Amino acid sequence: MADVKTATAASKPSGAPRAAGKPKNSNSFWLNLAIVAVCIAAGWIIRIFVLGDKGNFNNEGHPINWKGDMYSGGVIVPFLIATFLTMLSFVIERGITVLRAKGKVNGGEFVRKVQYHLANKNIDAALAECDKQSGSVGNVMKAGLHKYKEMISNTELNTDQKILSIQNEIEEATALELPMLEKNLVFLSTITSAATLLGLMGTVIGMIRAFSAMSQGGGADSTALAGGISEALYNTALGIGTSFLAMLAYNFYTTIIDGVNYSIDESGFTLTQSFAATYK
Q1: Is the whole-model pTM more than 0.70?
Q2: Which range is least confidently modeled, 10-24, 88-102, 211-225?
Q3: How far apart, in whole angstroms, are the C-alpha atoms of residue 118 and residue 267?
Q4: 52 lies in which domain range?
Q5: How far does the chain reach from its first CA to its final CA, in angstroms?
Q6: 125 found inside a domain
Q7: From CA 140, how far away is CA 268, in angstroms rounded?
């Protein structure tokens, strides 16, 4: 019973550097809400002052270029523009975070270098490699190496308990790193579907308006109908284009995150197996 208590105590931090703390969810929520609100406001400003500029229409109020056609697409247009701007904001934000978390050194190459230093019992050199990697894999490995170094000189625990302590340290460091990688990806995954549906809704509204105007005019004006369809399809084009870019960004970032996760798992396995083989 005493051994179990000792092992639990050893798994707690003891002055070793730790990964950054968990993000404050409340602050993150309000920041994301502010980004969305700013994008919606920007969407309306673009529609009113850029697309709605008088130079985009003739004297009769008919659009003479694509800006005028897009303006005529209706009230859904500014929301589609806002969706595009929101997508672009989170693509940039996630790009900075995920690429930074990926680190400067490939995960597989980094793990092999650490394995080499551990085989030579050069833990300080392994820690230096973590600083060079400077990504999530390096942060997790660094936390594990500090616990690894501590367990070498520990005389109170047996080998299995020391390995368990190292595993606990790695799991704790991983739990602090991964949420930062996956955060805000939900916006991109939501926009992938929502942008297309929003664009289709704008198109349907535009088609209803075009056919309604024709029926009230009492004639089948093909020119007016073609113009109405053209205006309506701008909604679809903008929605599908936004959805396509969001899908590409989401898949790109999740692929990188999967690679980081694999390297983190590999690093944890490397530390425990090295300790078990070297310090029996």
Answers
A1: yes
A2: 10-24
A3: 12
A4: 23-278
A5: 22
A6: yes
A7: 8
